[in-house]
Every structure is written in structure tokens, then in C-alpha cells.
Amino acid sequence: MRTFPILALLFFALNSPAQVVREKIEWLDVWIPDTNSDALPRVLLIGDSIVRGYGKQVEVGLKDTAYVARLATSKSLGDPALLEQVGLVLREHRFDVIHFNNGMHGDGYSEEVYGAALPELLAALRQGAPKAKLLFATTTDVRERGNLERVKPKTDRMVRRNELLTAFAKRERIPVNDLFEVVREHPEYHATDGVHFNEKGNTALATQVAAAIRRVLE
After folding, report:
1. CA nearest neighbour of 98 among 76, 59, 69
2. Fewer Cβ neighbours under 10 Å: the N or C end of the chain?
């Protein structure tokens, strides 16, 4: 009798959300350049609108080093649709590096559900891109609209999710790119909505991400 698959299914069943929680607006943005070229390594940035904000600068910054694709989505860890979207992209292309950042969305999922979904995500990444080197990134803070000096309470949730992500990555020996630390003391990096980033903030994030990817490729 093969007990491991049964126990694994039981674990995920017990730690999965009772119901799928959808946001008012759901969206998916996939950008894959140079699809017919093979001269350089291929990188995939997985994340949300924050990734969409700095992704183009990473692509430009690594133009002679790698082809940089992105999968930006409103889906959060805990939502099974995230794994379906990731699987869709991984089935279409080969990737040498995957940089994963997720945590801003999914307010309807608890931090326990978020953390419990990490092993399933890792399994999906390793199955879809078995030779890819993985990088996990922490989620950035959230500030008050109109008063960027003030951090919103939602940031506490980002901190907890970052702790869960970092602990899991350490156990799995996956490097962590600390984007939260890049912007933590810089309210001037934020756009006026307090969630996204202006040109200066996106440049800081893109510089950090590109440097982390270069280290992995080297």
C-alpha cells in the first residue's frame, strides 16, 4: 500500500481553503519575448502588479544576459488557479531561472493557508521546470494613500507571509531575494496609491532583481 500519496493528499485537503475566494476584478498578464531565440538563458518572473511594474526594467537590464518573461496575476497562493496559470506557462517554454514573488493579493486567504500552499507551489515549479534554478522574493509593504510616511496595517500580513516564505525557502535551500527590505525605509519609492511604485521605486526593485538573477546565472 502506497501511503505517502494518500498522506500528501490528506495534508493538502486539511490545509486548503474551505472555498475559493475571488476578487472583484481578476486578471492575468503573460509576457514572453524572444520565443524563437535560444542563444541566452530564459528567466520567468512570477508575481502580481508589482512585478509588472519593475519587470520591463529587469528585461532591459538583462538584455545581453537572458530573455526575461513575466507571469503577473491577481491570483494568490492558496488559490488553485495560481498553479494552473503557472503550469500553463511552464508547459509552453523552457526556463533556466524562475523568480517567484506572491503575497500582495489573496486577502481572503489566511496566512496559514498561504503557508500551507508553498509545498504545492514548489512541486508545480519543479515538475514544470525541473532544471530551473529557483529564487523566492519577499512581498513589499503597503502605505497609506495620501500619507506615504504611514504604513498600513496590511503590511503586518505581508511581514507574516514573508516569514513563512523565508522559512520554507530556507528548509528547501532556495535563495530569497528580500524586496521588502529594499523599499522598507523608502516611502518616496511608492506611487500615490501606497501599493505600487513610482519610477524610482521600480528602478530600485528592478536593480535588486536583476542582480539576484545574475548571481544565480553565474
Report:
1. 69
2. N
Contact status, residue 155 vs residue 142, Cβ threshold 8 Å? yes
**Chain CA centroid to CA 16, Å:** 19
Question: Are the CB atoms for 171 and 119 separated by under 8 Å?
Answer: no
**Fold designation for 27-217:** Rossmann fold (3.40.50)
Buried b (16+ CB within 10 A) or exposed e, 113-149: bbbbbbbbbbebbeebbeebbbbbbbbbbbbeeeebe
List, run by run, the mean pLDDT of 10-residue segments along the chain (218 residues). Answer: 46 56 94 96 97 97 97 96 97 96 95 97 97 98 96 97 98 98 97 97 98 96
Among candidate residues 189, 185, 187, 188, the one with its CA nearest the CA of residue 207: 189
DSSP secondary structure code for residue 187 in this structure: G
Q: What pLDDT shows up at residue 19?
A: 80
CA 100 to chain centre: 3
What is the sign, positive or negative, of the torsion defined by CA atoms of 148, 149, 155, 158?
positive
Hey, what's the cell of 49? 502588479
